[in-house]
Amino acid sequence: MKTLPEPLAALPYLVKWSLLASLVALLAGSASALFLFSLDAATGYRLAHPAIVWLLPLAGFAVGWVYWRFGRAVEAGNNLLIDEIHDPATVVPLRMAPLVLAGTVISHLFGASVGREGTAVQMGGTLADQLSRLPRMGPVDRRILLMAGISAGFASVFGTPLAGAVFGLEVLVIGRMRYDAIFPCVAAAVLADQVGLAWGVHHTHYAIGTVPAVTAWGVAAIAVAGIVFGVAGMAFATATHRLSAAMKHWIGYPPLRPLIGGAVVAIAVWAIGTQRYVGLGIPVILEAFAHPVAVYDWLGKFAFTVVSLGTGFKGGEVTPLFYIGATLGNALAPLLHLPFAMMAGVGFVAVFAGAANTPLASTVMALELFGPAIGPYAALACVVAYLCSGHCGIYRAQRVAGRKIGIDKPT
Question: Residues of the signal sequence (predicted)?
């Protein structure tokens, strides 16, 4: 039997996944738009009524109780999606999407220090997985749908379609990427970003300023900074996991964990007299690109986020990691004799690269957010941070296909 030329043989695949990726993009992009609008409203209200932070313990208890009562099957969040891609078992319950949306908005409304990527990724993955119920969708198709949903959610919440596509391919396994899903992930990410823009979403613009030419000193300085960024990412992931484990060990009733964490955060906000380290922290990130900031800002955000996430508040880790990286890079700039805006941009992506074990997605994000001039510096910092962050990461379900340095390790 005569076989078709490869371009013609690929047409059914391209048509199928164009349609499915479009559906995933419409669902994930629309969900991210709703989430971002809700997040803006919640943040605006909190800033206008700063005393609301005193209700954070009660808000944490309420969210914890709802998840304990109705959301135990989806409490693992991003890790559940990654596990389902590795070992498909059952369709992710649809209730994950509204639970994480409401839980994250409440967390931000009352002043927890959490991010937004986790919410968008969980909504995108959950909604995409519902399409696996369509006829003639097998386990391989389901894996690809989940990956496309992750890419679409990440792309639409940050406005970085290429980074979102690479993130969905890279985040699953340390040391290996799955190219069987490259077209669905790229298509879903690009289209989801456009869906968000069509709904009127506006993403933050970061002014990087002038990036100096690549020099021997610049390369050496960025390599040193990359080590620091990698250690910071590793420390963040380790501290969050250890606090979470300790809370589960010592406090058996889940709703009490975020109640205690909320009380700690509220008292800390009162003690230091500022909400600088709660919420997303976008204004402080923008400050890091505009002028020197306090050398301890990164540590403040680090502590508030570890307490918030480690005690059970919902959201994500990535935007707080952007804050930690940007302010840490800003602090390192005078020591390395490099522009603080450029170092803020490099730290922004490199700490994320180290904590999430996604150096390629982080480098692509730098290009999309800051322009091509920062590419060589960002790529070097992200790779060094990735190598120096060990095999611990913010996503416990990540598997290790090969050690970053040394002998291969089986999956």
Answer: none
